[in-house]
């Protein structure tokens, strides 16, 4: 069956996006796609280099008459978030992504699509192979591992890249120009498990929460969606308020930068409490379905009896663990005063795993202010430490401070005015663009970020709007041709 991408315009961009869909590229596993990028450069006789961390840089000379223009760096990341529905059989290390047309949108077959940031990377390849797009000296920077720590951007060498203007192609609202982004830091909490023998006359239950929308932990954190980890823990907290409950399993969430869609908890309690447990579960299920009727239409909460392992967590630790999860903020903690409607600082309670050797919790804090990021990270470390965890932070990356006097912003504003016949929206994004890191390494760069309309990134519902890709493409090529001359 022919791919639905084969008939879409601009065809060069969609053709390269098909290649990216065909090539497994989850974070930290980009070798196959890097090899294809290098082969592409060789086939088109373009200078190509790879740095020590795995980023790829391709240089293309200016088109005739554009040699005196300021050098432009186009930049996108090659990796994608690997998320799928539980009932979908898919190995992100070996299986291709299957694009599906859904009206005016392209989505995948029950997995993430990889439009974040595959559309940007495909656009760069289409520009590089073109013979009729006017541009000055051009460099294309393909970074690796953006979604799982931004190690590609962090490892970028200074003085390697020659251009002075950065076109980051990694935002998700067509028709808007982005001039700033949030920084972030991971908060890690580790509880040494207090195992004890399972007592007599105890019954086992498995609670599962699934069907949540999830989404990007920055772009979607303000939408009021359910957090599967906290929803599951809340049910246990309600049980614990009535009678003793201990844990023997907890597994929720999968990625630090995705709002958790699914979680399961294994419970152990006195078998004589069965009727009370079922009554509390029914009330809880009805309550959650009513509370999230608008935001989580596919919410599914189930409780099943199960066997018990030989060991379960102590009653005290079970209480402390559940209390720390239920009381952890996992939403915007402050909105921006300077930018109405924009989240300033937030936290995502991303993953909870109970293993034989440890209970591990990971959060991702984001903020437009590095000091606010650090303060919330410190507060969360203290929060989990009070419950008995050892804590630490890692993966810190800076934000990108807006520059309202940016010459590149004025150039792209003019391009957008001409294309849309109206002023573009100038935005700051509550997500971790690589611009913050790249700008710290190349402080002379003038930067802008734009892209097509992508919805539900980092979830199996991810989709990209077909018409917005065409508009994004037109703005990119017009922006390249509008770059000013050197020393203008």
Automatic annotation (TrEMBL):
SUPFAM superfamilies: Bacterial exopeptidase dimerisation domain, Zn-dependent exopeptidases
GO cellular component, one term: cytosol
The protein's required cofactors: Zn(2+); Co(2+)
Keywords: Cobalt, Dipeptidase, Hydrolase, Metal-binding, Metalloprotease, Protease, Zinc
Keyword Repressor found: no
GO biological process, one term: proteolysis
EC number, as in UniProt: 3.4.13.18
Catalytic activity: Hydrolysis of dipeptides, preferentially hydrophobic dipeptides including prolyl amino acids
Chain ranges of the Peptidase M20 dimerisation domain: 208-295
Superkingdom as given in the UniProt entry: Bacteria
GO molecular function: metal ion binding; metallodipeptidase activity
NCBIfam families cross-referenced by the UniProt entry: aa-his-dipept
Family classification: Belongs to the peptidase M20C family.
Name the UniProt record assigns to this protein: Cytosol non-specific dipeptidase
């Amino acid at each position: 069956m022919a791919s639905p991408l084969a008939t879409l315009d601009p065809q060069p961009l969609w053709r390269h996006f098909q290649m990216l869909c065909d090539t497994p590229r989850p974070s930290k596993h980009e070798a196959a796609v890097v090899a294809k990028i290098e082969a592409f450069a060789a086939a088109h006789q373009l200078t190509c280099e790879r740095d020590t961390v795995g980023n790829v840089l391709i240089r293309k000379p200016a088109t005739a008459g554009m040699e005196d223009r300021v050098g432009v760096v186009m930049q996108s990341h090659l990796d994608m978030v690997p998320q799928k529905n539980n009932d979908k059989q898919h190995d992100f290390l070996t299986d291709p992504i299957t694009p599906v047309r859904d009206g005016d949108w392209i989505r995948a077959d029950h997995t993430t699509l990889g439009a974040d940031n595959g559309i940007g990377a495909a656009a760069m390849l289409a520009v590089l192979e073109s013979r009729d797009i006017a541009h000055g000296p051009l460099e294309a920077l393909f970074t690796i591992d953006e979604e799982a720590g931004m190690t590609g951007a962090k490892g970028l060498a200074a003085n390697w890249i020659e251009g002075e203007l950065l076109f980051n192609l990694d935002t998700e609202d067509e028709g808007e120009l982005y001039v700033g982004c949030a920084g972030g830091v991971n908060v890690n909490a580790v509880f040494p498990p207090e195992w004890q023998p399972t007592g007599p006359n105890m019954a086992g239950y498995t609670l599962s929460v699934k069907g949540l929308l999830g989404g990007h932990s920055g772009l979607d954190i303000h939408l009021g969606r359910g957090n599967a980890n906290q929803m599951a823990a809340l049910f246990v907290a309600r049980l614990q308020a009535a009678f003793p409950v201990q844990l023997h399993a907890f597994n929720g969430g999968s990625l630090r930068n995705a709002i958790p869609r699914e979680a399961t908890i294994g419970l152990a309690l006195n078998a004589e409490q069965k009727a009370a447990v079922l009554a509390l579960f029914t009330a809880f299920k009805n309550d959650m379905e009513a509370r999230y009727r608008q935001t989580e239409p596919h919410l599914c909460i189930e409780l099943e009896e199960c066997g018990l392992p030989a060991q379960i967590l102590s009653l005290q630790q079970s209480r402390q663990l559940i209390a720390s999860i239920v009381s952890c903020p996992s939403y915007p903690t402050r909105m921006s005063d300077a930018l109405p409607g924009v989240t300033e600082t937030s936290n995502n309670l991303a993953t909870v795993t109970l293993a034989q050797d440890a209970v591990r919790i990971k959060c991702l804090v984001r903020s437009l202010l590095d000091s606010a990021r650090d303060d919330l990270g410190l507060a969360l470390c203290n929060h989990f430490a009070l419950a008995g965890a050892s804590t630490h932070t890692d993966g810190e990356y800076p934000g990108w401070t807006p520059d309202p006097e940016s010459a590149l912003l004025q150039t792209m504003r003019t391009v957008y005015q001409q294309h849309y016949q109206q002023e573009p929206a100038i935005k700051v994004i509550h997500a971790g663009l690589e611009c913050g890191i790249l700008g710290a390494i190349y402080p002379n760069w003038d930067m802008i970020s734009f892209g097509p309309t992508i919805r539900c990134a980092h979830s199996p519902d991810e989709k990209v709007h077909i018409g917005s890709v065409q508009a994004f493409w037109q703005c990119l090529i017009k922006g390249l041709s509008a770059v000013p001359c050197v020393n203008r």
